[in-house]
Design a protein that fits this description.
four-stranded mixed beta sheet; binds shikimate-3-phosphate; about 30% helix; UDP-n-acetylglucosamine1-carboxyvinyl-transferase, Chain
Length: about 450
Amino acid sequence: MKNIISINQNINGFKKKTISVDGDKSLSIRFILLSSLSTGKCTAVNLLKSEDVISAIKCIKKLGIKIKLQDKNCEVGGKGLFGYKFSDNLILNAGNSGTTARLLCSLLVNSTKWIKITGDKSLQKRDMERIIKPLKLFGVKFKNKNKTLPIFIKGTELLNPIKFEENLGSAQCKSAVMIAAIKTKGQTKLKCLPSRDHTELMFKHVLDIPINIINKKNYDIIKINGLKEFKPFHYKIPGDISSASFFIVLALLSKKSSLIIKNVNINPSRTGIIKVLNLMGSKIQLLNKKYYKGEKISDIYVKSKKNLKGINLNPNLNSAAIDEFLLIFLVASICKGVSTFKNLGELNKKESKRLDWGIKILKMMGVRTQKIKNNGLKIWGQPNLKLKKNFVIKNYLKDHRIFMTSTIAALCLGGSWKIHDSDSFKTSFPRFSEILKSLGAKIK
Ligand code: S3P
C-alpha cells in the first residue's frame, strides 16, 4: 500500500549493537541561519540532511546566500549582518519547520522590503505571535490575519534594543530575540524561562558575540550588545538526542537487548528524557563524555530493563524533554504504578497536538489515562502490557515524532499496526528506518 507501513511482529532482542544517529536538528538549522550572517565561508560536517534543514537551506539561498551541500558536508558563504540580497515580493516557505519560520523572522529584522513567510499545513496552525510580539518592539512591522502563517514581515534599519520577558520556556522565542539583538545597536536584555541553550553556546563559544548570561534558579538573564560582525567558523554537528531517544526506548523495552549510541549531544537542556527514564529505573549510562564548543557530547549505553516504575515528574524537567514526551508516555504505559505529568500545554502547540495524540494512542492501546488540571496527565502503567489488536495511525498532520513513536510501540509491544504517512520521519531523522532494519526490525 502507498505510504503506509505495516508492523506485525516485535523486534527480536539485539545484543551489544552500536549505532550512530543523524546530526542534531537544532544545531544544523542554527548553523545554516547563523553562518549566513558571518563575514565569509563557514563549513559544517555531519549536517542533518532532513526536510526541516533543507527548508532552512532553501530559505537562506533565496536571500542571496550561496550554500553547497555534499553528503553531510556543508559550506555557507556568509555575507555579514547586512548582506542579504533578494528581489521584490519574496516568498519564503519554511515547510514543516517551526524553528526555521520563527528564527527566519529574526534574520529579516533589518530587511526593508515586505517578505511573505509561509509553511506547510501543520506549520500554518502554529503560533507566530510569540516572536511577532518581541520583534515588533525592535521596530519590525508585520501584516498577519491570525497569529499564524502566512505572515508578511518588513524590517527597519533603525532597530531599537529591547527589554523582554520570555515566559513560555521556548528556545525558538528566546533565540529569535537574541538574533534580532545582534543586528541592533545597543544592549538588548532578555529574561527567560530555561529552555535549550544552543544559541547562547554558539554566540559565546563559536561566534564570539558580546553576551552576558546569568543563570538564576528559575530563569535566565541574557544581555547582548549588538552590531559586532563575526568571523566565519567551522562546526562539527553531534548526533541528535531526540533521534537517539527512539532507540533508547526501543532497547529499553525490547527483551534481552543492549545498545551503544555513539557521539550524541547530551547538553543538559536536552537530556530530560534520560533523567526521566533513569528516575523510572532504566540505568542508562553516558560514556566517554567530552566538550565541543560549549556542547557536551557522549556515547549512550542502554539495555533492556524490567520492573520500571511510574513517577510524579517535576515540571522543571519538562523543557529538557519537550520533544520526547510521546516516548515518555509510552514508557509510562508499561511502568508499575501511576505516572503524573504537569504543565504540558506547549505539547499541543507542536507539529500536531501531541498531548492529545499521546492520550489517543495510549487509549487505543487500552492504557488508562486521565487529563488533569493545567494540561497535566496521569497514566496508569501495565507492566505486562501485550497488545493483540489492530492499530491504525493516520491523520496526524505527518508529525514525525508521532510516526516514529508509533513505530517503536509496534516493535516492542505487539499488535498489528498500520501507520500512514510513512515518509514523515524524513522531517527530522532520514536514517530512522535504515537503522531500525539494521537492528533486525521487520517493517513492510
Ligand atoms: C527547538 C525548540 C523547541 C523544540 C523544537 C526545536 C529549537 O521548541 O520543541 O523541536 O531548535 O530551538 P520551542 O522553542 O517552541 O520550545
